Amino acid sequence: MIQVQSFTFNPFAENTFVLYDDESLEAAIIDPGCYEPEEQEQLQAFIEQKGLTPTLLLNTHCHIDHVLGNWFVKKTWKLPLQIHRLDEQVLRAVPTYAPMYGFSRYQPTEADAYLEEGQELKLGAHALSILFVPGHAPGHVVFWQQEQKFCIGGDCLFNGSIGRTDLPGGDHDTLIKNIREKLFTLPDDTTVYCGHGPATSIGHEKKHNPFF
To answer: Which of 40, 67, 116, 177 gives 20 to 30 Å between its CA and that of 140?
Structure first.
């Protein structure tokens, strides 16, 4: 079974996720937002305490709050960074504005591999499927675990809200369309682990989200 552990890092209160297979102890680190040394230490201490072996470094998308810890994770566990190709320019833009947000020590990273819709990533005996859900960011993806009915949703869909679409590469109509076609077609009892705030479910958002 895949276990899901979340951490809330940086001033944007971004949710970083560690997914790990409780048999092989292989782990995926998704959207590492750890910037301050104590945040990096918290992430590393959890992984060491559990005896995990990180095998995947993934970004749902590459806005600054979701990539602040990429360099630390790459350096510490020697992992290639995987993103969707359409978010590469978003990633490369981060150093130009990081100091304006107070992140003067941000260390840039390059993507090492590209995620594609329909691709499956192995985590022990389990798989994460890639869903392409642009609108908040041009290369936004969601990681869907079919057997356990959960997804790591990034900033597409929140508990009672959706991701903002006023940033470069964002588009409101595109996001609404993709949530309807890619996420709302998942089972209602699918848990959505959001990039900010509490988790929710597909059924709850279909019924109560004011944007729908």
So the answer is: 40
